[in-house]
Design brief:
Layout: H1 2-7, H2 23-34, E1 40-41, H3 42-50, H4 59-71, E2 76-78, E3 83-86, H5 127-132, E4 156-160, H6 163-168, E5 170-172, E6 187-193, E7 199-205, E8 210-212, H7 215-219, E9 228-233, E10 239-244, H8 256-267, H9 274-283, H10 291-301, H11 306-315, E11 319-320, E12 329-330
Helix pairs in contact: 3-4, 8-10, 9-10
Length: 349
């Protein structure tokens, strides 16, 4: 050991020390944030007031010191990454889940005075549907089981827009891998940047599990259901590159004509069970349809949970799958056979 220590080259220790933020320094940067209508990043504050950049040797410690000082001041609020805003300068609407996301309960009873639209436990579902309940395209706000965070997060993710989110300017965090956007703080400001350099401020609420503020970009997209886009991380915190892909998702894409048919179905749905609507949707697909396609279509007509659609397909005898085929079929001749009595024990209480 003594010999090794003698042979080890001596390295001069850099005497650079992190900045010490004095009360007057903190007052200056807080004033800067409070007087701005937009968010201000701690990275830019370090550069503007102290000439410290990410290339500075002490940047990591300086960055932490600046963030801690700002987060300790009640007059500003941390909105994710290195972004800070004047306290109270956050839109109110991002704290609520819009009413159209509430699931509809038909309450329709059959001749035996039993509910027509019933959900089954996993044991009562078709085995393929059990797996599809966790497919990202089946999940939505108020209708998801949050999975553990991935150990290795991808830099870029593929996401698919559905019609209800296009209309409301939102997007569900359910489609994003858990942990891809930080859990803290609960409310965050992110910036999307498209290929032309155009920026969009997008709010993320980890409690409501929604993104807000996308209405302008969504309405520019002619595809109402099934448009595909990517989000890619950038070196800047909470800034993401945004890009539409040329081809819509083949499973949940709905044409403009079909959208109108489904909206008409929804407008005429008063007093009808969700089973009635599902029969109408399935009648459109004589060659069969994928569960995710059916789920997307029925949600245009009526807000319906993924489990209810899976339960109706699994329990009413007019719906079936052919051996080895992933699609579902409808047999109008078996409508009168009604509910499969063997599934009664699996009805959720």
């Amino acid at each position: 050991m003594k010999l090794a220590q003698k042979l080890t080259p001596t390295i001069d220790v850099d005497d650079a020390q992190p900045i010490e933020l004095k009360p007057e320094d903190i007052a200056k940067v807080v004033k800067k944030v409070v007087e701005s209508e937009e968010s201000v990043t701690s990275t830019k504050l370090l550069e503007e007031y102290f000439e410290i950049t990410p290339g500075t040797k002490t940047f990591i410690d300086d960055f932490a010191n600046m963030n801690n000082a700002l987060r300790a001041d009640a007059s500003v609020v941390w909105v994710g990454g290195d972004r800070f805003r004047k306290a109270g300068n956050v839109p109110d609407y991002i704290h609520e889940i819009p009413a159209p996301f509430e699931f509809f309960q038909s309450g329709v009873l059959n001749e035996e005075n039993e509910e027509v639209d019933v959900e089954l436990t996993d044991e009562g579902l078709n085995s393929s549907l059990r797996k599809l309940l966790q497919h990202p395209l089946a999940l939505d706000v108020e209708d998801e089981d949050i999975q553990p965070a991935l150990k290795n997060q991808p830099d870029s993710i593929r996401l698919v827009m559905k019609s209800i989110h296009r209309e409301l300017g939102t997007f569900p965090l359910a489609q994003l891998p858990t942990g891809w956007i930080s859990d803290e703080p609960k409310v965050q400001e992110t910036i999307f940047v498209d290929g032309s350099g155009k920026e969009l401020q997008v709010w993320v609420n980890n409690e409501t599990r929604l993104m807000y503020g996308l209405i302008d970009w969504w309405l520019d997209q002619p595809i109402e259901s099934g448009a595909v886009f990517t989000l890619t991380r950038t070196p800047e915190l909470n800034v993401f590159d945004f890009a539409y892909l040329d081809q819509p998702d083949p499973v949940v894409y709905i044409s403009t004509q079909r959208m109108e048919e489904l909206r008409t179905l929804g407008a005429e749905a008063e007093g009808k069970s969700t089973l009635d609507l599902l029969i109408e949707v399935m009648s459109h697909w004589p060659k069969g349809a994928d569960y995710l396609t059916v789920l997307a279509e029925i949600n245009v007509a009526r807000r319906t949970s993924r489990r209810l659609v899976a339960s109706l397909l699994s329990s009413y005898q007019c719906f079936y799958q052919r051996s080895g085929s992933p699609v579902w079929h409808f047999d109008s001749k078996k409508v009168e056979q009604g509910f499969d009595k063997s599934k009664k024990k699996f009805i959720k209480k």
